[in-house]
Amino acid sequence: MNSDKPLHILKADHFDRPFLEYICKLTDHIRRLDKTKDGLMYLRGLLAHRRAMLYFTQPSTRTFLSFQSACQILGIATSEIRDSSTSSERKGESAEDSLRTFSSYVDLIIMRTPIPGFCDKIAASLDETPRPVPIINAGSGPDQHPTQAVLDIYTLMRSFRTSGGIDGKTFMMVGDLKRGRTIRSLSLLLSYFDDVKIIFSSPPLYRIDAALKDKLHRGKLKFVETADFEEVLPTADAIYMTRVQDEYDTVKGESAAIDSSKYHLNYEHLSLLKKDCVIMHPLPRRGELDQKIDSDPRAKYWRQERNGMWTRAALITKVLGVDEHILLPEL
């Protein structure tokens, strides 16, 4: 119905390397502008005429606040739904109709949902209306988390700036790999880089699924799976820790029955790591990442969290078409 369809951010496998490098460049410029009053006021004027809806029907702290802060940096007014029971969905209205209603009031919808594929469904549905608006997937069930993957790539690029970048590096991903959407999305993005290897380390029941394996094979990314966590630690250039995703248990106590303790990164493990190894975690954490590691210079997860605000601001400028104003030479 409408040929002028907006740019959506729905899946990590919709990106490519030039896009990622461009977003990282945008992010650096936004960070630099934000350091001065004049730069900050310039950023806030870019999208002061736009509005965004934060539709977060799955619990979130970091992602919600980083998107809200990103909107504030760019001058975007926001409204929010954080519990569908407070909307007309409680009266029996479908989520699709609710989001069609919200699209009447805003220029951008940022969605976090426990339902895999729901963001894609809404984007396709709104594209067929007279007033389509861009959708940003802020996490969809155990399926995808594309903006987390972008901030992870940005964190890795900054961490490896003096050591040749992401190309040629070995990445170790640990924990609940079967249901970890951050693992899925980041792995897909790493396949765009040269000579990268991923080591997946998890209990047997938490291994990556066949669908992700197939995508990685098609992307010609080298990967291995191992249950021996400590043995492969010294080979990693970056370690990506994740928690058990027990919110997706189909049976109560299902995850508690699996012993994941030997896949915890403890303070004692630091002596096994490369001196410039990058330690990451999408947070929140539990016992899988020792708090004593926080003070180690290799720990990048708090910086990784803050990078989320900057990269999401960059993605929003791209989606809403003001990205070129950030790269003006005089700025």
Task: Write structural notes for this entry.
The chain has 331 residues and is of the alpha/beta class. It folds into two domains: 12-144 and 306-326, Aspartate/ornithine carbamoyltransferase (Rossmann fold, 3-Layer(aba) Sandwich); 146-304, Aspartate/ornithine carbamoyltransferase (Rossmann fold), CATH 3.40.50. The chain has helices at residues 17-33, 37-46, 62-73, 95-103, 118-127, 146-159, 181-190, 210-218, 229-232, 301-319, 323-326, and strands spanning 51-56, 77-81, 108-113, 135-140, 170-174, 197-201, 222-226, 238-241, 278-280. The strands form two sheets. The protein has a five-stranded parallel β-sheet, with helices on one face. Strands 2-1-3-4 form a four-stranded parallel β-sheet, with helices on both faces. Strand 3 (108-113), helix 5 (118-127) and strand 4 (135-140) form a beta-alpha-beta unit. Helix 1 (17-33) packs across helix 6, helix 1 (17-33) packs across helix 10 (301-319) and helix 3 crosses helix 10. The longest helix is centred in the C-terminal third of the chain and has 19 residues, at 301-319. The model has no long low-confidence stretch (mean pLDDT 90).
